[in-house]
């Protein structure tokens, strides 16, 4: 069946009526926008910086009937080798607000978790120390309900402003966010998270810093941060740890092309050089099969696979 041709030129021209040329690019290689350093081109790549630009961008993409993909800092995605047809909207530049009033933070979705965590510390607020080493944007972290060391986004988020595909702005209270393990309501409604309100607690600045340093050291000693990756490849199966199961199956160091099960932490698939998405996917399938054969446990990827093979 022949695919309907997408009119990227018309979309490009209309986006340029309101966005500068350097933030609306054609044939953008997505390997430059993922921590895996893998991924083919996006037909069109857009970086809005404000709520108005985001709303205009989404509405225009919808009017032109072009498929939409949203990314943050690309730290939990595997973009396939032929890239992404249609429009990719990066929320990474949405950094117009980072404010604090009493114990509440108001932050744009594009800020990196590290910066938000350090901002909270600078204000003497505790609750975001867990996020210090997670290399994602705040928006991506809300989408994934990212978490580590007993903390997760659902513990601190109180409200979210998002933009729907037709450009309308929506407001959510935490009770409507359907937070679960690596899940939020945005998996189902496909809206774009734009601003986040978080409620923290007053704390001791020295203690907050000490906890952040402790968690950073833990990460550096246990995780293969010197290699490109997308963090933990698999979700934690109930009652087990994915990394332990993979290690017990004898798969540490197992590789396909330049994709490898990390020697340092078997829960991470790393790109040791020039791995393709195909290499990573083949490795993931093989790991799933062998772990299932050895332990009867199905490993479900945490990394989200997008694009064309
Ligand atoms: C070394 C390393 C360590 C990591 N450690 C952890 C950890 O401890 N805990 C943890 O939970 N994760 C961890 N991760 C994974 C990752 O950092 C988190 O999932 C992070 O929250 C993803 O944010 P992002 O901005 O990179 O999102 P992306 O990877 O760009 O996107 C992830 C998903 O979120 C969607 N999305 C992104 N932004 C938005 C938005 N504004 N609105 C709507 N949808 C959006 C995308 O469509 C995609 O489906 C790690 C990754 C690496 C590389």
Topology record:
Elements: H1 8-15, E1 24-29, E2 41-46, H2 51-63, E3 68-71, E4 77-79, E5 84-90, E6 98-101, E7 104-108, H3 113-122, E8 125-126, H4 138-144, E9 147-148, E10 151-152, E11 157-163, E12 169-173, H5 186-189, E13 192-199, E14 201-202, H6 205-222, E15 228-232, H7 242-248, E16 255-256, E17 259-261, E18 268-271, H8 277-295, E19 304-306
Parallel strand pairs: 2-5, 3-5, 4-19
Antiparallel strand pairs: 1-2, 6-7, 7-13, 8-14, 9-10, 11-12, 11-13, 15-18, 16-17, 17-18
Bound molecules: flavin-adenine dinucleotide.
Strand order of the largest sheet: 6-7-13-11-12
| Mean pLDDT level | 97
Task: Flag low-confidence runs.
Answer: none
Ligands bound to this protein structure: flavin-adenine dinucleotide
Percent strand equals 25-35%
Q: How many helices in DSSP terms?
A: 8
Please summarize the sheet with the most strands: 5 strands, antiparallel
Query: How are helices and strands ordered from N to C?
Result: HEEHEEEEEHEHEEEEHEEHEHEEEHE
Q: Separation of termini?
A: 17 Å
Q: How many β-strands, per DSSP?
A: 19
Structural class: alpha+beta
Gross morphology: globular
Radius of gyration, in Å, reads: 20 Å
Helix content: 25-40%
């Amino acid at each position: 069946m022949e695919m309907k041709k997408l009119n990227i030129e018309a979309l490009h021209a209309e986006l340029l009526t309101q966005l500068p040329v350097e933030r609306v690019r054609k044939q953008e290689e997505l390997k430059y926008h993922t921590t895996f350093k893998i991924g083919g081109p996006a037909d069109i790549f857009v970086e809005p910086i404000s709520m108005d630009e985001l709303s205009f961008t989404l509405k225009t993409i919808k009017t032109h009937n072009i498929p939409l993909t949203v990314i943050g800092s690309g730290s939990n995605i595997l973009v396939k080798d032929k890239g992404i047809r249609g429009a990719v909207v990066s929320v990474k530049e949405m950094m117009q607000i980072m404010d604090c009033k009493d114990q509440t933070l108001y932050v744009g979705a594009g800020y990196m978790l590290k910066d938000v965590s350090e901002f909270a510390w600078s204000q003497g607020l505790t609750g975001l120390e867990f996020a210090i080493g997670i290399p994602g944007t705040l928006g991506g972290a809300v989408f994934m309900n990212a978490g580590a060391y007993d903390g997760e986004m659902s513990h601190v988020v109180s409200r979210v402003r998002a933009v729907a595909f037709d450009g309308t702005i929506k407001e959510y209270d935490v009770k409507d966010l359907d937070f679960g393990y690596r899940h939020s309501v945005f998996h189902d409604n496909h809206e774009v998270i734009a601003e986040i309100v978080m409620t923290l607690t007053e704390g001791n600045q020295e203690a907050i810093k000490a906890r952040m340093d402790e968690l950073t050291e833990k990460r550096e000693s246990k995780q293969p941060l010197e290699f490109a990756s997308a963090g933990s490849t698999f979700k934690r199966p109930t009652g087990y740890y994915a990394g332990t199961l993979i290690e017990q199956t004898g798969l540490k160091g197992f590789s396909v092309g330049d994709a490898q099960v990390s020697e340092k932490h078997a829960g991470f698939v790393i790109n040791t050089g020039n791995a393709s998405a195909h290499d990573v996917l083949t490795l993931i399938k093989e790991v799933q099969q062998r772990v299932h054969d050895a332990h009867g446990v199905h490993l479900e990827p945490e990394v989200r696979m997008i694009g064309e093979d």
